[in-house]
Amino acid sequence: MKRFFLVLVILLLGTVMIYAATFAVIGKSVHPYWSQVEQGVKAAGKALGVKTQFFVPAKEDINAQLQMLESFIAQGVDGIAIAPSDPTAVIPAIKKALELGIPIITLDTDTPDSGRYVYIGTDNYTAGYIAGETMKKLLNGKGKVVIGTGSLTAMNSLQRMQGFKDAIKDTEIEILDTLNDEEDGARALSMAESALNAHPDLDGFFGVYAYNGPSQALAVKNAGKVGKVKIVCFDTTPDILQYVKEGVIQATMGQKPYMMGYLSVAVLFNMSKLGVTNTLMMLPKDRIIDTGVDVVTPENLDDYLKYMEELGIPVKF
């Protein structure tokens, strides 16, 4: 990992002329989370002197992703990063791109059986496990929890939920239901409200995607159950951090979407400049670049905001 960043710095310092290359990144939905990914993509493109293209469907839509993936392949771009909503559906298109000599990597969510070269993003199982450990402490090892997610097929969702479940398996915490809102904010809110009505003794919500935490928080706040129903969720968008500040959300797993976008372009750039084999030699043997998570709570929120500002990604809410 360190060797990769060292080579990247050398290339940045040595890049005098604009390198005529185009790298494409395909995300999952229109959302502030993916806006941060796009910021990272654009920043890397500017730093490296290359063209970047960024696409996300309006909401979770594997067909829209596939159409754009095929379009980028037809355009003959120099490399593609994708966050597949369905890890199986993208395999034929990814294999096609690789056969044509177009490097493919994944970010945020993976499809390891596709032949993609690298995954960049959160170790989702570990992050889910940390979320489960956090919930376990908040509930003192017992209680009733409902899970909210935006997908029942995407690997990041499945891995986070499995990690969460494994963390609480030896406790008295019971998962009552798993709700799939398909990354629709209004649907996520309606489902959270229904869960509160159906389970008046509910002790906690686990929000798997960026839509879930805020929807659960609003439902809890409107129901007058702040502090009574604990919320552990994912991501650090402004709406989530506002609820953390208010104490409605007790903990959120802060991913690093800006770095996912930036590193995706950087890795593809190196593959194009140095070759795939030479680039892979500088990366972890498992071909995974774990960008990590920060557990953000009301107690450490101010420190987290200062850290983000130092990185040049100020969060305003």
Architecture overview:
It is a single chain. This protein has 317 residues and is α/β, with parallel strands linked by helices. 47% of the residues lie in helices and 18% in strands. A 6-stranded parallel beta sheet has the order 2-1-3-4-5-11, with helices on both faces. A 6-stranded mixed beta sheet has the order 7-6-8-9-10-12, sandwiched between helices. Helix 3 (62-75) packs parallel to helix 4 (91-99), helix 5 (124-138) runs parallel beside helix 6 (155-168) and helix 7 crosses helix 8 (212-222).
Task: Name the features.
alpha/beta; disordered N terminus; 12 strands; single chain; elongated; 6-stranded parallel sheet; 317 residues; 6-stranded mixed sheet
Low-confidence segments, given as residue ranges, are 1-7, 9-17
Sheet with the most strands? 6 strands, parallel
Oligomer: single chain
Spatial strand order of the main sheet = 2-1-3-4-5-11
Mean pLDDT: 92
The total strand number stands at 12
Number of helices: 12
Helix/strand-derived category reads: alpha/beta
The percent of residues in helical segments reads: 40-55%
Share of residues in strands: 15-25%
- SSE string, helices as H and strands as E: HEHEHEHEEHEHEHEHEHEHHEEH
**Shape annotation:** elongated
| Rg, alpha carbons | 20 Å
Briefly say what this structure is:
The chain has helices spanning 2-14, 32-48, 62-75, 91-99, 124-138, 155-168, 185-198, 212-222, 238-246, 257-274, 276-281, 301-310, and strands at 22-26, 51-55, 79-82, 104-107, 119-121, 142-149, 172-180, 204-207, 230-234, 251-254, 288-290, 294-296. It is an alpha/beta fold.
